[in-house]
Design brief:
globular, 15-stranded mixed sheet, Glycolipid-binding domain-containing protein, 15 strands, 1 helix, mainly beta
């Protein structure tokens, strides 16, 4: 069960945004990721709880940030309920999309698991609902994912297979490179893996 810490920063000006302390593991239903988020000063700012089924679809997602809460799942596309800080008002949303995304590295693993790309197979377009900081506002967007390379690296605990993805924002044309090993993001714009207590888990085929 990988357990570790990501540091998060603005990918444009590199301003620190805080840290995400996580643990994740494959399980009977698919894969689960839980994390607590902190500010640069160390204050608690939110949490992430994401469960995927064996096909990579979101069985359950629960996010907390700035006293806002979102709960969602794959249902008629994706469906969610967003609750305000007072807890008095809840807004339901539904979009014909493939999955969710957001600031957490967990969502990069989730989309890669959903698409299951092979090197050189070409880019695949995917529609996602992003929950944006700081108040988890929903935003529907399209991305293009391509698996550029899959390489094995020798480590003290055995070979580590690293996938290099090219992720493009369809609306803006912005392109970024994401490196994922199993269920851990090794590097991506705005994300650095600072600490990992055990090797990434590998998914069954």
């Amino acid at each position: 069960m990988p357990r570790g810490r990501y540091s998060l920063h603005d990918p444009h000006d590199h301003a620190p945004l805080g840290e995400e302390h996580f643990q994740c593991a494959p399980g009977p239903s698919g894969w689960r990721y839980v994390a607590q988020r902190t500010s640069p000063s160390g204050d608690h700012t939110g949490s992430v709880d994401l469960t995927l089924d064996e096909l990579g679809r979101p069985l359950r997602v629960e996010l907390h940030a700035s006293s806002w809460q979102v709960r969602g799942a794959a249902l008629d596309g994706v469906t969610w309920v967003r609750t305000d800080p007072t807890g008095e008002h809840a807004t339901e949303g539904n979009v014909r999309a493939h999955s969710f995304t957001g600031a957490s590295p967990a969502f990069l693993v989730a989309v890669s698991r959903l698409l299951r790309l092979e090197p050189g197979a070409g880019a695949v377009r995917v529609r996602l609902v992003a929950f944006t900081d700081p108040v988890l506002a929903p935003l529907t967007l399209d991305q293009s994912w391509a698996l550029l390379d899959r390489a094995g690296h020798a480590t003290d605990t055995g070979p580590l297979v690293v996938d290099e993805y090219q992720v493009s924002e369809v609306d803006t044309g912005e392109v970024r490179t994401v490196h994922i090993a199993g269920d851990v993001v090794l590097a991506a714009p705005g994300i650095e893996l600072e600490h990992l207590e055990s090797p990434p888990s590998s998914f069954a085929a």
